[in-house]
Amino acid sequence: MALDSLSKRYNRYGIDEWGKSHEKLEDILPPDDWRLKAIKAFRRRIKLAEDSSESRVINDIRDEIGKRGITDRGEQIDYLYSIGLGCTRIGKILKLSHNIVADRILKLRKENPSVQGKNSIHYIDALVLMRNGMTGIDDKTFKSYQY
């Protein structure tokens, strides 16, 4: 309803009175406007839902690592990196610092030059790959799909 009321506001020339598309609603509407409050509340709900979903997927990834019996932190880093996760996401999953993960990945790359540094998949994609038994190093089928 809040967005509908904004989209119906046009002047006699058909030009939107609320400003150009690069302007923020916060700059256009007064702070106490009900529409701005409704939109901010909606944004908060979306952010909470995204955070909750991400936390569930991270926990599922941890469970998958446990099911595989990979207990060594270095092997966990190697495995997650081989699937396609980047340094920051691996650190978040394993609750390790960025430096520890980055050092291990550099070591892995030196030992195995065929390992590519194109790791930028998201948590949910990694979980799907894990559950389907695919990795970037071991599975030739998956390797052919890497760009």
Please give a handful of descriptors for the protein shown.
single chain, 147 residues, mainly alpha, 8 helices, 63% helix, disordered C terminus
Q: Could you tell me how far the N terminus lies from the C terminus, measured between alpha carbons in angstroms?
A: 43 Å
Cα-atom Rg, whole angstroms? Answer: 23 Å
Q: How does the major sheet shape up?
A: none
Helix count from the secondary structure assignment: 8
Overall structural class, as computed from helix and strand content, comes to mainly alpha
Strand content: under 5%
Write down the secondary-structure element order: HHHHHHHH
Helical fraction: 55-70%
* Gross geometry: elongated
Give the quaternary arrangement of the chains.
single chain
Overview of this structure, please?
With 147 residues, this protein is mainly α. It contains 8 helices and no strands. The chain is elongated. The two termini are 43 Å apart. 16% of the residues are buried. Mean pLDDT is 80; it is low at 139-147.
